[in-house]
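Explain this fold:

***
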Amino acid sequence: MSTHRADHPLSHALPLFLLAGLCLSSLDATAKWLLRDQGLLLVVWARYFGQMLVVTPFARAAAGPGFWRTSRLSLQLTRSAFLLGATFCFFGGLAYLPLAEASAITFLAPVFVVVLSGPLLHEHANRGRWLTSISGFVGVLVVLRPGSAVFHPAALLMVGMALCNALYNLYTRKLADESPHTSLFYSALLGTVGTSAFLPFALPTAWPPLPVVALFLLLGLLAGLGHFCLINALTRAPAAMLTPFSYLQMIWATAYGYVFFGQLPDTVSFVGMAIIVGSGIALAAHEQQRWRRR
């Protein structure tokens, strides 16, 4: 009788999830740079239109001419709408908040995932997941400091982003039986169509310079690659198992904030971010132990 054990789901999903985090952190930094001089709607449109240009031929080549067919259209559109809402909330807040702090606030998403994964996915969280998620929530509150002088109303947009992002990840998991190429296509399609309807009201009076155009194209490339990796990761492992590793994006956000914008979190924010990262590491260790005991 073979004693071979199945690979841990993280062994296949985690590299894709980490690459997705790097791409999406790079996307955030690029968007923040563009938002200094460009309108919010134009930046959001460029992010989706560029993704559409990147992923459509890729999806067709990988999945064939029927890559767009889905038996769960309503779920695909709902999932894509949550992603569009998350993008508007995040980019809107990013224009006013430092990159590292903005990213930290969005890590309320794991709390929402733990709360909602039961009713939506029937993946009930155990005590360890609850405790570490609550610890991450405390860390976010330290960064956010509601009621203090450093609190900015734009932080509320980041909370909205966290909720939308959690629902997007959970609905991605619900669509695990669909091709990731199909899901990637609908993510880009809804955002492109939805923002294009209002684009005539957001066009600049003059054509932007070539470096700005290149950054707009980079938005789409990073979005396409990042969400392709994310979708593939979430179809290989439960959302509650992968989500804690998204805390590592704060490392990239802090580095990008310092290098490109000269922004570093203050001491209190660093403490909050350390709590958030620590809770993510603790949950990852908890999940590894649970798997070994199976």
